[in-house]
Amino acid sequence: MDIGSVNSLPYEDFVDVFGNVVEKCPLITAAVWSRRPFSSLADLEASINDFIDALPESGKEGILRVHPDLAGRDLQSGTLTRESREEQGQAGLDTLTTAEVSRMTRLNTEYKDHFGFPFVICARKNNKATILRQLEERLRNERTIERACAIDEVKKICHLRLQRLVVPEMSNKL
Ligand SMILES: NC(=O)N[C@H]1NC(=O)NC1=O
Protein backbone atom coordinates (compact mmCIF):
# COMPACT_ATOMS: atom_id res chain seq x y z
CA MET A 1 0.00 0.00 0.00
CA ASP A 2 1.47 3.42 -0.90
CA ILE A 3 0.94 6.65 1.01
CA GLY A 4 -1.79 7.83 -1.42
CA SER A 5 -3.82 4.72 -0.65
CA VAL A 6 -3.18 5.21 3.07
CA ASN A 7 -4.54 8.76 2.88
CA SER A 8 -7.70 7.61 1.14
CA LEU A 9 -8.58 4.98 3.76
CA PRO A 10 -11.80 5.62 5.64
CA TYR A 11 -11.34 5.82 9.41
CA GLU A 12 -12.50 2.25 10.10
CA ASP A 13 -10.15 0.73 7.51
CA PHE A 14 -7.25 2.89 8.68
CA VAL A 15 -7.69 1.56 12.23
CA ASP A 16 -8.09 -2.01 10.90
CA VAL A 17 -4.80 -1.77 9.03
CA PHE A 18 -2.71 0.31 11.45
CA GLY A 19 -4.46 -0.30 14.78
CA ASN A 20 -1.66 -2.44 16.19
CA VAL A 21 1.45 -0.57 15.04
CA VAL A 22 1.69 0.37 18.69
CA GLU A 23 0.83 -2.85 20.51
CA LYS A 24 -2.82 -2.95 21.64
CA CYS A 25 -3.14 0.84 21.26
CA PRO A 26 -5.64 1.40 18.43
CA LEU A 27 -6.59 4.65 20.13
CA ILE A 28 -3.30 6.16 18.94
CA THR A 29 -4.07 5.16 15.34
CA ALA A 30 -7.61 6.51 15.65
CA ALA A 31 -6.24 9.81 16.93
CA VAL A 32 -3.64 10.35 14.18
CA TRP A 33 -6.15 9.61 11.40
CA SER A 34 -7.32 13.22 11.68
CA ARG A 35 -3.80 14.43 10.82
CA ARG A 36 -4.13 13.20 7.19
CA PRO A 37 -3.01 13.68 4.51
CA PHE A 38 0.42 12.27 5.34
CA SER A 39 3.15 13.27 2.91
CA SER A 40 5.02 10.01 3.42
CA LEU A 41 5.31 7.00 5.66
CA ALA A 42 7.83 8.96 7.71
CA ASP A 43 5.19 11.67 8.18
CA LEU A 44 2.65 9.12 9.46
CA GLU A 45 5.28 7.70 11.80
CA ALA A 46 6.18 11.21 13.03
CA SER A 47 2.50 11.87 13.81
CA ILE A 48 2.34 8.69 15.90
CA ASN A 49 5.57 9.59 17.70
CA ASP A 50 4.34 13.16 18.34
CA PHE A 51 1.14 11.76 19.84
CA ILE A 52 3.12 9.45 22.15
CA ASP A 53 5.53 12.24 23.16
CA ALA A 54 2.62 14.54 24.06
CA LEU A 55 1.16 12.01 26.52
CA PRO A 56 1.65 12.53 30.24
CA GLU A 57 4.07 10.08 31.87
CA SER A 58 1.11 8.00 33.13
CA GLY A 59 -0.09 7.63 29.51
CA LYS A 60 3.35 6.48 28.38
CA GLU A 61 3.40 3.94 31.19
CA GLY A 62 -0.06 2.79 30.05
CA ILE A 63 1.37 2.06 26.58
CA LEU A 64 4.14 0.00 28.18
CA ARG A 65 1.72 -1.88 30.46
CA VAL A 66 -0.34 -3.35 27.62
CA HIS A 67 2.77 -4.97 26.11
CA PRO A 68 3.00 -8.72 26.63
CA ASP A 69 5.97 -10.12 28.52
CA LEU A 70 8.73 -11.47 26.31
CA ALA A 71 8.66 -15.28 26.40
CA GLY A 72 5.80 -14.94 28.88
CA ARG A 73 2.38 -16.48 29.46
CA ASP A 74 0.87 -15.16 26.21
CA LEU A 75 3.61 -16.78 24.15
CA GLN A 76 3.18 -20.11 25.95
CA SER A 77 -0.62 -20.03 25.62
CA GLY A 78 -0.74 -18.73 22.02
CA THR A 79 -2.59 -15.53 22.91
CA LEU A 80 -0.06 -13.00 21.57
CA THR A 81 -1.08 -10.61 18.78
CA ARG A 82 0.11 -11.81 15.35
CA GLU A 83 2.77 -9.08 15.20
CA SER A 84 4.12 -9.85 18.63
CA ARG A 85 4.19 -13.60 17.95
CA GLU A 86 6.24 -13.04 14.78
CA GLU A 87 8.63 -10.64 16.54
CA GLN A 88 9.21 -12.89 19.53
CA GLY A 89 9.64 -15.85 17.18
CA GLN A 90 12.20 -14.00 15.08
CA ALA A 91 14.24 -13.26 18.21
CA GLY A 92 14.18 -16.97 19.06
CA LEU A 93 12.02 -16.54 22.15
CA ASP A 94 9.72 -19.40 21.15
CA THR A 95 12.58 -21.90 21.29
CA LEU A 96 14.12 -21.10 24.68
CA THR A 97 15.37 -23.90 26.89
CA THR A 98 13.56 -24.45 30.19
CA ALA A 99 16.47 -22.78 31.98
CA GLU A 100 16.28 -19.73 29.67
CA VAL A 101 12.52 -19.42 30.19
CA SER A 102 13.06 -19.51 33.98
CA ARG A 103 15.74 -16.83 33.78
CA MET A 104 13.61 -14.61 31.53
CA THR A 105 10.58 -15.07 33.81
CA ARG A 106 12.59 -14.25 36.94
CA LEU A 107 14.08 -11.10 35.37
CA ASN A 108 10.75 -9.98 33.85
CA THR A 109 9.13 -10.29 37.29
CA GLU A 110 11.96 -8.44 38.99
CA TYR A 111 11.75 -5.66 36.37
CA LYS A 112 7.96 -5.34 36.69
CA ASP A 113 8.10 -5.30 40.50
CA HIS A 114 10.73 -2.57 40.33
CA PHE A 115 9.27 -0.25 37.65
CA GLY A 116 5.55 -1.10 37.65
CA PHE A 117 5.49 -1.80 33.90
CA PRO A 118 6.82 -4.70 31.81
CA PHE A 119 10.19 -4.76 30.10
CA VAL A 120 9.80 -3.66 26.46
CA ILE A 121 12.43 -4.05 23.77
CA CYS A 122 12.27 -4.25 19.98
CA ALA A 123 12.61 -8.04 19.58
CA ARG A 124 13.33 -7.85 15.84
CA LYS A 125 16.50 -5.86 16.49
CA ASN A 126 17.68 -8.36 19.11
CA ASN A 127 18.11 -12.03 19.91
CA LYS A 128 17.68 -13.98 23.13
CA ALA A 129 21.22 -13.20 24.33
CA THR A 130 20.99 -9.42 23.78
CA ILE A 131 17.46 -9.35 25.24
CA LEU A 132 18.57 -11.06 28.45
CA ARG A 133 21.62 -8.80 28.70
CA GLN A 134 19.53 -5.64 28.17
CA LEU A 135 16.98 -6.83 30.70
CA GLU A 136 19.71 -7.18 33.34
CA GLU A 137 21.35 -3.89 32.44
CA ARG A 138 18.18 -1.80 32.20
CA LEU A 139 16.98 -3.09 35.58
CA ARG A 140 19.68 -0.86 37.04
CA ASN A 141 18.42 2.30 35.28
CA GLU A 142 16.85 5.20 37.10
CA ARG A 143 13.05 5.14 36.58
CA THR A 144 12.72 8.25 34.34
CA ILE A 145 15.57 7.13 32.11
CA GLU A 146 14.16 3.62 31.88
CA ARG A 147 10.67 4.84 30.95
CA ALA A 148 12.15 6.94 28.13
CA CYS A 149 14.27 4.00 26.99
CA ALA A 150 11.24 1.68 26.90
CA ILE A 151 9.21 4.26 24.92
CA ASP A 152 12.06 4.49 22.40
CA GLU A 153 11.77 0.73 21.96
CA VAL A 154 7.99 1.08 21.38
CA LYS A 155 8.83 3.55 18.58
CA LYS A 156 11.33 1.12 17.03
CA ILE A 157 8.70 -1.65 17.08
CA CYS A 158 6.20 0.77 15.51
CA HIS A 159 8.72 1.77 12.81
CA LEU A 160 9.24 -1.86 11.74
CA ARG A 161 5.52 -2.67 11.87
CA LEU A 162 4.74 0.36 9.68
CA GLN A 163 7.41 -0.61 7.17
CA ARG A 164 5.82 -4.01 6.74
CA LEU A 165 2.44 -2.42 6.05
CA VAL A 166 3.38 0.41 3.73
CA VAL A 167 5.60 -0.17 0.73
CA PRO A 168 8.21 2.60 0.49
CA GLU A 169 7.33 5.01 -2.34
CA MET A 170 10.46 4.10 -4.34
CA SER A 171 9.60 0.44 -4.68
CA ASN A 172 6.16 1.35 -6.05
CA LYS A 173 7.87 2.96 -9.02
CA LEU A 174 10.04 -0.06 -9.86
N1 LIG B 1 7.60 -6.85 26.03
C1 LIG B 1 7.96 -6.55 24.77
O1 LIG B 1 9.00 -5.97 24.51
N2 LIG B 1 7.11 -6.91 23.78
C2 LIG B 1 7.33 -6.63 22.46
N3 LIG B 1 8.57 -6.43 21.84
C3 LIG B 1 8.40 -6.68 20.52
O2 LIG B 1 9.28 -6.58 19.66
N4 LIG B 1 7.13 -7.07 20.27
C4 LIG B 1 6.43 -7.10 21.44
O3 LIG B 1 5.27 -7.43 21.63
What does this structure look like?
The chain is an all-alpha fold. 66% of the residues lie in helices and 0% in strands. The protein contains 11 helices and no strands. Helix 4 packs antiparallel against helix 10 and helix 5 crosses helix 10. The longest helix has 23 residues. It is globular. The mean pLDDT is 95. The protein binds 1-[(4S)-2,5-dioxoimidazolidin-4-yl]urea. The site of 1-[(4S)-2,5-dioxoimidazolidin-4-yl]urea has 15 residues, from helix 7. GO terms for molecular function: 2-oxo-4-hydroxy-4-carboxy-5-ureidoimidazoline decarboxylase activity. Keywords: Decarboxylase, Lyase, Peroxisome, Purine metabolism.
Which key terms come to mind for this protein?
mainly alpha; binds 1-[(4S)-2,5-dioxoimidazolidin-4-yl]urea; OHCU_decarboxylase; OHCU_decarboxylase-1; EC 4.1.1.97
